[in-house]
Amino acid sequence: MGISQTYKVSVEDIKSWNDLSSDAIYAGETIHISQEEHYKVKSGDTLSGIAQKYDVGVK
Fold first, then answer.
1. Residue 22 DSSP one-character state
2. Is residue 1 packed enough to be buried (19+ CB in 10 Å), middle (13-18) or exposed (0-12)?
3. Which residues sit opposite 38 in a β-bridge?
4. Which residues form the LysM domain (predicted)?
């Protein structure tokens, strides 16, 4: 399950909240997964993998 599925937000929202131009994320980054929640990216994480972990979708 992905980040967007877990938090029931779109990948586009996540990208917008984090000024991302692509789905690429990097270990050590802290990203906004809602207007108030954050997730610290770990080595090996992918946007789709994080979205899956939190039962949210990647669009």
1. S
2. middle
3. 32
4. 1-33, 37-59
Dihedral sign of CA atoms 3, 35, 17, 12 in order: positive
**pLDDT tens, 30-55?**
888 876 667 889 999 998 888 888 77
For the chain, the domain total comes to 1
Task: Confirm whether 35 is domain-assigned.
Answer: yes
Encoding tokens for residue 12?
Answer: 């586009």
Residue 1 identity (one-letter amino acid): M
What is the residue range of 39's domain? Answer: 3-53
Write down the residue that tokens 């690429």 correspond to: 24
